[in-house]
Write a structure and sequence with these properties.
399 residues; alpha/beta; eight-stranded mixed sheet; five-stranded parallel sheet; 17 helices; globular; binds adenosine-5'-diphosphate; binds magnesium ion
């Protein structure tokens, strides 16, 4: 199959001459053209070309901003920048925005085709997962926790998982540890045949080989999901040892393991918290949530997990009488990220099972999720936070 190409350049003559060059090689096929960055992003999302040849200087949205958008919103597509000699500083920015390679104008037919084919083949290999293991050297377990139902744990976990997948193209799995009333499957319109409850009834030694079969792929995003039990009474069969085994196996193959939880400290939730690199405590600006958040943070402190815990403030709407600064003061924690209240988008998204990050990435709430996911991606490079002690002997606190 030919490598599909989109050419983005504001000068029609340039587009035509590139098209002519490429028409000589049956391995590549130009499927679209764009005269500015905005059109390039739109057509890339629609047509999913393998490669975008992107000019830097274009009116409106320039090539760098367009590259950034494509990296976030159409990660399967690779961008190659076309620049002229004096644009070195822009080139650096373009590579930082996610461009895969660049080519300096004027270029020969061979230079252009070599670059296209090299980028295509490297990225194809990546996509097919051949480099998967190599990329999981520092797997991240990120748990969304919260002290009150309805605070937005599931909405944030689902949308953040998809944003991480889009931004990094790495393997992302979402584990629903709200073992009684898990609703990740509903929020993503997934119809699982089996859940974590059946998985943990397999012989422990077989779990390593069987786990992948228990994951359901959320097709629109490529995020894998381990669904919660279908019946609330099955909560208890998922033990500390099961949770530890499952998360350890996932860490072999997945770069990001996102865990959604219930509001109570079950064995499974405590184990996930213990094994997390980052705990995101979802809170909101109402007095009852703040009170419970404070209590839950205190527990995490007792368990020596506060060093890796950050507060995410959901549904911010400062007309409600409380400000985020008030929350920081009340909790004694800095807020890592604020997510605006936008019921018009968030609620129908949950009801329809289509996460808003897919349908409304450019809204205030969509952009806030991308900010959160970018902070998690960058967080990997941060020095590791405080060491935490094992909690096995602390289960007693809650029994
Ligand atoms: N930022 C937000 N703005 C508006 N509604 C939100 C927001 N975050 C979540 N919601 C809505 O609140 C409801 C409860 O969220 P959910 O994620 O199920 O909470 P939890 O998992 O903590 O119980 C859902 O209908 C969800 O769409
Ligand atoms: Mg939930």
């Amino acid at each position: 199959m030919a490598i599909t190409i989109l050419i983005a350049d504001d000068i029609e003559q340039t587009r035509n001459s590139i098209k002519r060059l490429l028409s000589l090689d049956p391995d590549v096929r130009v499927i679209a053209e764009a005269a500015d960055g905005k059109e390039a992003v739109k057509k890339t999302i629609e047509l999913k070309p393998d490669i975008v040849l992107m000019d830097i200087n274009m009116p409106g949205l320039d090539g760098i901003a367009a590259t950034e958008q494509i990296t976030l919103r159409a990660p399967e597509t690779s961008v190659i920048i076309m620049s002229v000699q004096r644009e070195n500083e822009y080139l650096r920015k373009a590579m930082f925005a996610g461009a895969r390679d660049y080519i300096v104008k004027p270029f020969t037919n061979d230079e252009l085709l070599d670059t296209i084919k090299r980028v295509y083949h490297i990225d194809k290999e990546k996509r097919s997962g051949l480099l998967r293991r190599a990329s999981c050297t520092d797997p991240q377990v990120i748990t969304f926790f919260g002290a009150k139902g309805g605070v937005g744990k599931t909405a944030l976990a689902v949308n953040t998982a998809i944003a991480l997948k889009q931004a990094t193209r790495s393997n992302v799995v979402l584990v629903d540890l709200d073992l009684q009333f898990g609703d990740v499957a509903a929020a993503m319109n997934i119809k699982p045949q089996q859940s974590i409850a059946e998985l943990v009834q397999e012989p422990p030694d077989a779990v390593v080989d069987l786990l992948e079969q228990y994951l359901v792929e959320h097709k629109p995003s490529g995020v894998k999901v381990l669904c919660a039990p279908f019946k609330p009474e099955q909560e208890e069969i998922v033990t500390q040892a099961d949770t530890e085994r499952i998360l350890n196996i996932l860490k072999e193959d997945y770069q990001y393991i996102i865990v959604d939880t219930s509001t109570h400290f079950s064995e499974a939730v405590l184990t996930a918290l213990e094994m997390s690199n980052t705990i995101l405590m979802v809170s909101a600006l109402d007095v009852l949530t703040v009170k419970n958040t404070k209590l839950a943070l205190h527990v995490l402190q007792t368990l020596d997990m506060h060093g890796k815990t950050d507060v995410v403030l959901n549904r911010t709407d400062e007309t409600m009488g409380m400000k985020s600064q008030d929350l920081e003061d009340a909790l004694g924690y800095k807020i890592r990220c604020t997510i605006p209240a936008n019921g018009r988008i968030a609620v129908p998204a949950i009801n329809k099972g289509i996460p808003f990050i897919i349908t409304h990435p450019k809204t205030n709430i969509g952009e806030a999720i991308f900010r959160l996911s970018n902070s998690l991606i960058q967080g990997i490079e941060k020095p590791s936070k405080k060491k935490h002690k094992r909690i096995a002997n602390l289960f007693g606190l809650f029994s």
